[in-house]
Specification:
The complex is a heterodimer of chains A (233) and B (178).
Chain A: H1 2-14, H2 16-39, E1 53-56, H3 62-70, E2 81-86, H4 91-107, E3 115-120, H5 130-151, E4 155-158, H6 164-177, E5 183-187, H7 198-205, E6 211-214, H8 217-222, E7 227-228
Parallel strand pairs in A: 1-2, 1-4, 2-3, 4-5, 5-6, 6-7
Chain B: H1 2-9, E1 13-17, H2 24-30, H3 33-41, E2 46-50, E3 69-73, H4 80-84, E4 86-91, H5 95-103, E5 108-111, H6 121-130, E6 135-137, H7 142-148, H8 163-173
Parallel strand pairs in B: 1-2, 1-4, 2-3, 4-5, 5-6
Classes of the chains: A alpha/beta (233), B alpha/beta (178).
């Protein structure tokens, strides 16, 4: 064993390209693992004044649940707010806009200025062929990257539409590279009782959500790092 | 006049909604003679169907011969009024219409669409049926469900809220509890 290791090591030192490559990969891996380790930890620096917040909406119940959650969060803490929905979904942003407008009516003028609404391309529409979806996926990722570079949110709130996945991955990469430290909160949809959605499963397994919430006790048993918070609806 | 007043008072509507989906199997299941007879026998007078993207149009009926009054529409910006005036709701398994109906404390039968590719929605309907907040059926078992259901056995649903999540998020970010 030892001999084999030594042999391998000498082979590596004899080839500087491999050595550099191995070093770079080790550094990146260490950084990724460090970020994963740090991500789930509460921020214990002094309480921030306010945090820029990206809110991912989605049809099929996601938006209703998200707006329910927002109704419980202090708007002066979570400001400015960036609402994002799929380009094919025209109802969600409308609903968010209505909610923000009702805030303005209540507080008198300030809230809506701190809210922005934007649409994002979806990587794949239902029934789209796989060949064209390679292209559309690349476009969707580029668009998500552009949006994230513009916003650089401190907080991401999402609850499961597929559009949240690239945004969360990019937010994680920003942490790795050191562009922006952000906290991602993922609330699995109430419709998921026994199994996580694909977005939820990936974010859980990859440790990309700082806090992961589920609305049914069965899921918490299966995914012990998740927090069970009861039904939001 | 007096007659029509009585008629309005005793109006009992079954409201069927498929949301924005295409769910012909459900519309067909409620449009059978057998099913409509069963609804009449149970004291329902009207059947209103929101049929969505489906291509199957149910037969309208004015109910002149004393049978069920049947009407349908395709979409509506809000079905809140339809839900409110219904005595029984038969819905697709979308979480939006499920919770909207439960909040109004209306008896609800959720019909699961087996044609959907990723059919995670049956999870929610089955869980809520197990907790006795609604009945869960499939298009081919809907008649049986209605024929054997006992509305008294349903328990009211107490809506949850996002306060626990909000608290955890605030704590995580270092905001003080109020």
């Amino acid at each position: 064993m030892e001999k084999g290791n030594g042999c391998c090591f000498s082979a590596m030192t004899s080839n500087p390209t491999i050595l550099v490559l191995v070093t770079i990969i080790t550094v990146i891996l260490t950084r990724v693992l460090y970020i994963m380790y740090q991500s789930g930890k509460p921020l214990h620096n002094t309480a921030p004044q306010s945090v820029s917040t990206l809110i991912v909406l989605g049809s099929g119940g996601h938006t209703a649940e998200m707006l329910n959650l927002l109704s419980m969060l202090q708007k002066d803490r979570f400001t400015p707010r960036f609402y994002i929905a799929a380009a094919t979904d025209n109802m969600s942003l409308q609903k968010a806009h209505l909610m923000e407008k009702s805030l303005v009516d209540m507080t008198g003028g300030e809230a809506l200025e701190s809210a922005q609404f934007m649409q994002i391309y979806r990587s794949r529409e239902v029934g789209q062929s796989y060949i064209t979806s390679v292209v559309t996926t690349i476009i969707a990722i580029a668009h998500a990257l552009w949006i994230m570079i513009k916003i650089r949110p401190q907080v991401i709130l999402c609850n499961g539409p597929g559009t949240c996945l690239p945004l969360c991955v990019i937010a994680f990469l920003f942490k790795v590279v050191g562009i922006r430290w952000s906290s991602t909160f993922y609330v699995e949809s109430i419709a998921r009782v026994r199994r996580l959605s694909l977005s939820g499963l990936l974010l859980y397994k990859l440790h990309m959500a700082d806090q992961f919430f589920v609305q049914w006790p069965q899921l918490q048993k299966k995914y012990p790092r998740a927090h069970y918070v009861g039904c939001l609806m | 006049m007096g007659d029509s007043d009585d008629g309005i008072k005793s109006e009992r509507t079954v409201f069927v909604t498929v949301g924005t989906t295409c769910f012909d199997a459900l519309v067909k299941a409620v449009d059978t003679q057998e099913f409509k007879k069963e609804l009449s026998a149970r004291g329902y007078t009207h059947l209103l169907i929101q049929m969505g993207r489906g291509s199957y149009f149910p037969k309208k009926s004015t109910g002149e011969d004393g049978s069920l009054v049947v009407d349908y529409f395709i979409f509506s910006s809000s079905i809140a009024d339809n839900l409110r005036s219904a005595s029984l709701v038969i819905s697709h398994a979308g979480s939006g219409s499920i919770f909207e109906t439960l909040r109004l404390r209306k008896p609800l039968i959720v019909v699961v669409n087996e044609d959907l590719m990723d059919n995670h929605q049956s999870e929610l309907a089955e869980e809520l049926a197990e907790r006795k907040h609604l009945f869960c059926a499939h298009p081919q078992t809907l008649f049986q469900t209605v024929a054997s259901m006992n509305l008294e056995s349903l328990l009211p649903y107490h809506p949850g809220d996002a306060a626990p999540v909000a608290k955890l998020i605030n704590r995580f970010l270092g905001f003080p509890d109020d």
